[in-house]
Structure formats: C-alpha cells, structure tokens
Automatic annotation (TrEMBL):
NCBIfam families: RNA_bind_YhbY. SMART domains: CRS1_YhbY. It comes from Vulcanibacillus modesticaldus. Keywords: RNA-binding. InterPro entries: RNA-binding_CRM, RNA-binding_domain, RNA-binding_YhbY, YhbY-like_sf. It comes from the Bacteria. This is RNA-binding protein. One of its GO terms (molecular function) is RNA binding.
Length: 97
C-alpha cells in the first residue's frame, strides 16, 4: 500500500503525463489489462482516460484495472485515472519512505 506521502510524490510526477490509454464504450477487457500491465512494467506510472461514452463510471473502471493489473491507484481526477506499479526490471521511480 502507498502512503499519503508516496501518493503525493507520484501525483507530482504524473502531473505532466498524458493519458496513454482510453476506456470507451467497450469498457475494460483482458487485452486492455494486458497492454496496461506492459505499459506499467515499462513506465511504472501511467494515466488512463475514461471517455464520456464509457458505460461504466470512472471509479468502476479504475477498480477493474487495479484488480486486473495488481497496480496501485494513485488518484482519480475527473475522467483520468493515475496508476502506479513498481517495475520488476525497469525500476525508475524511487518512492519516499
């Protein structure tokens, strides 16, 4: 679990990132989970955008992705989800203690 301090730090890092995935009408599927997992392994911190035509609300989408990828939910702002998962082979982000 991330501490408040770690989440604040990750939010500051995520601020300038653009969403690299979009969840639309199709919702979250296995293929998307796989791609998000690969992106998390490569980058550790990503944003996912939930489009207005999505049938699920942003919280539901966030929970589905977090469960599917075993990642940490950093924050949800509007329709944007910020996710973090420590990389096994490509660790770049040093979290504060």
């Amino acid at each position: 679990m991330l501490t408040g301090k770690q989440k604040r730090y990750l939010r500051s890092l995520a601020h300038h990132l653009d969403p690299i995935f979009q969840v639309g009408k199709g919702g979250v599927n296995e293929n998307m989970i796989k791609q998000i997992n690969e992106a998390l392994e490569a980058r550790e911190l990503i944003k996912v955008s939930v489009l207005k035509n999505s049938l699920e609300d942003t919280d539901e989408v966030a929970m589905a992705i977090v469960e599917g990828t075993k990642s940490e939910l950093v924050q949800i702002i509007g329709h944007t989800i910020v996710l973090y998962k420590e990389s096994k082979e490509n660790k770049q982000i040093e979290l504060p203690r």
